[in-house]
Amino acid sequence: MCETCGCGDPGSYQIRKVGQDDSADNAYEHSHPHSHSPGFSHRHQHLHPHSHTGEDDHRHNPDHGHDHDHDHAHSHDHAHSHNSDSIHGHDVVSGEPVSGKRLINLEKDILETNNLMAERNRGFFEAKKVFCINMVSSPGSGKTSLLERMIIALKDTIPIYIIEGDQQSMLDADRLAKLGVPAVQINTGSGCHLDAIMVNKALKSFDIATGSLLLIENVGNLVCPALFDLGESTRVLVMSVTEGEDKPLKYPAMFRSARLCLINKTDLLPYVDFRIEEATKSASAMNPELEFIEVSAKTGKGMEKLVDWIIGKINTISN
Amino acid sequence: MHELTLATAIVEMAVLEAEKNNAGSVKEIELEVGKLSGVDADALEFALSLAVRNTKLEYTVIKILHTDGIGRCNLCNRSFIMHAVWTPCPGCKMPAGQIIHGEALRVVSLVVDD
Prior knowledge:
The complex is a heterodimer of chains A (319) and B (114).
Chain A: E1 14-17, E2 29-30, E3 101-109, H1 112-128, E4 131-137, H2 143-154, E5 160-166, H3 171-177, E6 183-187, H4 196-203, E7 213-217, E8 234-240, H5 247-250, H6 252-257, E9 260-264, H7 276-286, E10 291-294, H8 303-317
Parallel strand pairs in A: 4-7, 4-8, 5-6, 5-7, 8-9, 9-10
Antiparallel strand pairs in A: 1-2, 1-6
Helix pairs in contact in A: 1-4
Chain B: H1 3-20, E1 25-33, H2 41-51, E2 61-65, E3 69-73, E4 79-82, E5 97-101, E6 105-113
Parallel strand pairs in B: 1-2
Antiparallel strand pairs in B: 1-6, 3-4, 3-5
Helix pairs in contact in B: 1-2
């Protein structure tokens, strides 16, 4: 267990489409990057939490049929057995003792894997003329409620697809799917952000139409998602008036990475000490290109402006 | 906390490179973590100490270059050194620096032993 943040397996996540049969063995897309200790045989421990929309919880047998991606690099100083369906490709290191140090210049971006996949996603969106919005914010700022409004306003104009990100539960994806749009839920488990690889996998649940709108609701977190390009067409940050006007100063990276800031819950302005001018001033100082729209998911205020903004962006890419 | 994700990525990258070069062990790894990269260096070091276990990097010396950032103030256009993304412009005192340099997050090099 990680002693910094208490997380377990840093790489395992699940992807589920709303309406998919949960009881099938291969209903889950799993990811398990892990390292081996000496003598450990190649079996999987499924320590990830997941909820079922069906009747009963079930426990996993250690040797059940799953398709796994086995793209992990590991050294072979220990003996271990493989499942017959896992395929490794690598050279055996020769055991000749030679003393000689070599410098290998790498100069590789640590986020290269993510960024390459993000560009692949981006290319796909461009080819299919899909406008993809990555919505980010703290937990509870109103992303899902705003998405409900956006879906209602736009679903008769343009095909809409949803990718939902949360640590656990299908609640948000289910909620949005009720509005009649295809929705996929990514449960990150202990993970704190969506990344391009997860989005790429989730996209395969859809046969996404040309000229459609893809709305990704990122995990509620103003810190980590800033670092992870998903390949989106634009990033929209939701900040609610209950979060304090100094929010931009405290989370500069996220404010810098966004294109549009939705100031939500404006219906509560009479009850909070939030000055919109101060909030927009500090955010604009850090990101002069940031645009602002004041909205209220509760009353619907500002939704027309938001819809116009989205349609405007879509028209730009389809030309 | 994404430092563990990054540490895992670093280890995988280094191990792959070492295997590509038929190296026996990785003696040293040099990383660049820009002060404006959004990564907490201490958390990354700790995460690395976990991520290297039972890999070719278990005994590798890890060197981290903490490069300063350079920003240009969006308000008064002054260039200044940024130690953090919130470093205020020395002129107008606002944290309005547009980042020119300092966001790098890289594996710079490896020293391997045959």
